[in-house]
Amino acid sequence: MSRLFLGVDGGQSSTTACIGDEEGRVIGYGRGGPCNHVGGPEGRAKFISAMKGSVTAALASAGVEGRFAVACLGFSGGPADKEEILHEILPADHILVTTDALIALSGATAGKPGIITIAGTGSISFGRNAAGTTVRAGGWGYVYGDEGGGFDLTRQALRAALRMEEGWGSATLLRQMLLEATGAGNANDLLHRFYTVDYPRPRIAAFARLVDEAAVNGDAIAGEILANAAQQLATLTAAVRQQLFHSGEAAVVAYLGGVFHSDLVRERFRMLVELAEGNQVTPPVYGPAAGALLEAYRAAKLDVQLSDVPESEK
After folding, report:
1. Disulfide check for 222: which of 70, 207, 215, 251 has CB 3.0–4.6 Å away?
2. Domains in the chain, please, with CATH?
């Protein structure tokens, strides 16, 4: 029987597992709940449930049972507090626990050298060259970093609304759009709502779509916020590139995350990044779970090309 390989993307909203055979064919795919936090009895239980649920579903879809030769798992909350648990519950000869940035990069470039810049709730740029050297820039959280991420865009929009309301900022569609979307009475009321548990960071970040909508409708303030976001994301990318690739050397730069759904951000980011000779900006080839599977093959020193990848990972 062909050896089995496992790749898992463990995120804040869901857990996705991909099973592949020795030839790189994806034979199983499954999903489970979120698993980024394991602190405390409840967190540990949720993590184990998400892991077992996603892997069991993938095994069922593959119609196989048995042990994995190599399993690679990437997590948004970091790997340190999860590795011991995984060795207890996962039937694998070798377990590689890493970050979500690495598996996102591997999936986005189909395992090849390159850079991925992610702008979801937060932001980070991460790259790996042909020698296997990795470098990151950003990803320092919503207080000290995450420039160009969704939370930062909403924060900038609320600041613009507050300045308008207090009479020392330019008029902007963003104030009324934010109030209508949240039911807040005024920008100050919304500010205080955003400090409560009713508005966790991902929920606040989701309002970034209003910035894009306002910019498309000609709002100058919203357009400036998006332009600055693209510049900041391009700057993170440049910081990674200069440490990994020689001047003029070809480098694939992929993008990922909800902020890049904005045509204005995506195209300005592309333009800025491709000003550097050798850069080619592209959408991801595969998703992070497929990237984790590729890293499992890499750990086993198998050079394979994936086939039969599910549509949700393309």
Report:
1. 215
2. 4-110+285-313 (3.30.420.40), 113-284 (3.30.420.40)
